Amino acid sequence: MKTIILTFATVFAFTANVFAQTPKNVKSETKTTVTTIKDSKGEKKLVKTEKTQEVQKVALGEEKANTLNIPQVVDNKVDVIKTTEVSIDGQVQEVNVDRSAYYMFDGQKYQMQSDKSGYTLTSPDNKPKGILRKTSNNNYIYVHDNKVAIGFYDTDGNFILETYDSNSDSVKREKFEIVK
């Protein structure tokens, strides 16, 4: 009886461990710039570290008959996380990346401006078209009138808004393309 209980406990532990892990593709890049400034007070060393991390959840496609490999779904959302740290004589400060820019959507040019709590989206006639607030998982909550959506940046710097449509029971995706 004791052996059976231990066997079930062991099998359960390994099974739970396998299902708890979500596979991800992670691409990280770190760029460090060191600047030395000499002035009348002495020498200061500035170290700027920019970290860019692209995280994509791995999803498998349909299994095909008579093949060994299952294809990977490529069109999964890629989360881009950028952080900038500046070290001045050993004191590290984290700097948020400013994404203020112009974006094109439905043939109109919108401006995203940084404000004290996040960003404000304005239309070409300078009317507010929504506010954006950053969440803990590097996404943004978009709010305008009665519309609430989730937003994120893709690898090209475009801003993507995802909104739930209760009529079709689906997620509607809108892409604001960055103007370069």
List key phrases describing it.
four-stranded antiparallel sheet; 1 helix; mainly beta; eight-stranded antiparallel beta barrel; 180 residues
Quick summary of this structure?
The protein is mainly beta and 180 residues long.
Q: Report the structural category.
A: mainly beta
Give the H and E element order.
Answer: HEEEEEEEEEEEE
Counted beta strands: 12
Quote the distance from N terminus to C terminus: 70 Å
Tally of helical runs: 1
Beta-strand portion reads: over 45%
Oligomer designation: single chain
Mean pLDDT, rounded to whole units? 80
Computed Rg: 23 Å
Poorly predicted regions are none
Query: What is the global morphology?
Result: extended
Strand order of the largest sheet: 5-6-7-8-9-10-11-12
Helical content stands at 10-25%
Q: How many domains comprise the coordinates?
A: 2
Question: What's the main sheet like?
Answer: 8 strands, antiparallel, barrel
Give a structural overview:
There is one protein chain. A hairpin with a 3-residue loop joins strand 6 and strand 7 (118-122). The chain is built from 1 helix and 12 strands, in the order αββββββββββββ. The chain folds into 2 domains: 18-98, no CATH class; 99-179. 11% of the residues lie in helices and 56% in strands. The strands form 2 sheets. An 8-stranded antiparallel β-barrel has the order 5-6-7-8-9-10-11-12. A 4-stranded antiparallel sheet has the order 1-2-3-4, with no helix packed on it. The chain is extended. The chain starts with a helix and ends with a strand. With 180 residues, the chain is mainly beta.
